Amino acid sequence: MEPPGKGEEMAAALRAAKRALRAELRQRLRALGAAERQRQSRLLTRKVLGHPKYKESKRIAIFLSMPDEIQTEEIIQDIFKQRKECFIPRYKPQSNHMDMLKLLSAEDISSLALTSWNILQPGDDDTAREEALAAGGLDLIFMPGLGFDRKGNRLGRGKGYYDTYLERCMKHPRGKPYTIALAFREQICDSVPVTENDVQVDEILYEDC
Q1: Which of 97, 113, 184, 192 is 20 to 30 A (C-alpha) from 145?
Q2: Contacts of 116 (CB under 8 A, 6+ apart)
Q3: Is 32 helix (H, G, I), strand (E, B) or coil?
Q4: DSSP secondary structure code for residue 159 in this structure
Q5: If the chain, 209 residues long, is cut into consecutive pieces of 10 residues, what is the mean pLDDT of each piece?
Q6: Which residue, 189, 193, 172, is CA-closest to 181?
Q7: Residue 31: which residues within 8 A CB-CB, separation 6 or more?
């Protein structure tokens, strides 16, 4: 049995380790030029389009990328070209709740609202879109993140949106979808500090994998 306070000390140390690694990774990403981000994004797009899990999946969730993330526009275009169903995140501020809502076409992105933290997503008043778990579930989720290690551990931005959503997926009759993280090689770490609530990624795609 741990002595009183020991658990709190360990939790505080883990939070501090995550904060320090997030700061280091943000610095690495800031140093990455636009041309290099585009080069690695194109390379990963080719990896995704040829991936067996992508080819066999019909219902796919994917993030709309921010400038410091692998760019996903070409993957989204291909999802519609292959007549698959596409779902995108809607994050609820001041919470860890996220829904995956259906995108009707690649052009549909231009109708989305820009949030205060600079992410395009369906507005709160957009109630007509299908939520993935309300119907057929998901086959595949492409996941963003700040850092990853080769064991599948993921460091997000600290809100817990994806971990919480994957817990909901596990309760769906279809079960947990396959998860693939898309990363710049600069986001690959020797080790990512994790808690028991952090869900591992099934596979991480990056340039050298």
Answers
A1: 113
A2: 93
A3: coil
A4: S
A5: 67 88 94 96 97 98 94 97 97 90 96 87 90 94 95 88 91 92 96 84 93
A6: 189
A7: 186
